[in-house]
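Hypothesis: this fold can be encoded by more than one sequence.
Test: take the structure tokens below, design a sequence, compare later.
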């Protein structure tokens, strides 16, 4: 289902309300909640709204859907983006699990990342995705080396390494089973071009694996 909004601000408000309610519900029922978010410029308004929700952030664990293998000082770091725009206000109290650890290569760091994610409560309470014009979501690039392992990982694998020309740097991404089992899954896209990609998507596009694999995904879109 596509939810249409007039502008990015009203979309951010509605998406933050949806995610905030999912987190609050999990906190009431289990005392814990988990959230995976995407990077890029699109979610910044959403982050700012969500960060001030009146929930017990001390019991929320946040991680990234995917991350570029760059230092946190890089302007391309999703970790830096989350720290600057989501882990603020009330949300400063949340626990954050990054997907990079300073290893020389992603292969050298992957075991430690997997170990860190063992403390992430599953299924995810909420997951917010973005999408590129090539139909990729998370780091599931159509031509990606490692895409097959990300979509159909070995049993228990929570992350995979993907390399693709469009990705520039190697990336670490959550695997498909973590995304499609999220209790609340949202896709956040903006602009007519991305809407057209979504409306005309085929099963071959990686975003289809997520939307078709989840029982009740919600798409948030504005021009």
């Amino acid at each position: 289902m596509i939810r249409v909004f007039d502008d990015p601000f009203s979309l951010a408000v509605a998406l933050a309300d949806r995610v905030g309610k999912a987190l609050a519900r999990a906190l009431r029922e289990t005392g814990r909640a988990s959230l995976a978010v995407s990077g890029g410029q699109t979610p910044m308004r959403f982050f700012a709204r969500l960060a001030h929700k009146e929930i017990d952030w001390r019991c929320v664990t946040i991680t990234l859907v995917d991350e570029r293998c760059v230092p946190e000082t890089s302007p391309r770091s999703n970790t830096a983006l989350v720290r600057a725009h989501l882990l603020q206000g009330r949300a400063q109290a949340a626990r954050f699990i990054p997907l990079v650890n300073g290893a020389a290569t992603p292969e050298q760091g992957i075991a430690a990342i997997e170990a860190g994610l063992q403390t992430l409560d599953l299924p995810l309470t909420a997951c917010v995705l973005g999408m590129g014009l090539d139909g990729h979501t998370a780091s599931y690039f159509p031509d990606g080396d490692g895409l097959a392992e990300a979509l159909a990982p070995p049993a228990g694998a929570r992350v995979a390494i993907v390399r693709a020309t469009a990705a520039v740097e190697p990336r670490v991404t959550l695997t498909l089973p973590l995304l499609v089992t999220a209790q609340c899954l949202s896709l956040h896209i903006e602009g007519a071009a991305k809407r057209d990609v979504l409306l005309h998507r085929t099963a071959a596009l990686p975003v289809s694996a997520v939307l078709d694999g989840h029982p009740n995904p919600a798409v948030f879109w504005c021009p």
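The radius of gyration is 16 Å. The domain at 8-129+158-180 is CATH 3.40.50.1360 (Rossmann fold).
Hypothesis status: open.
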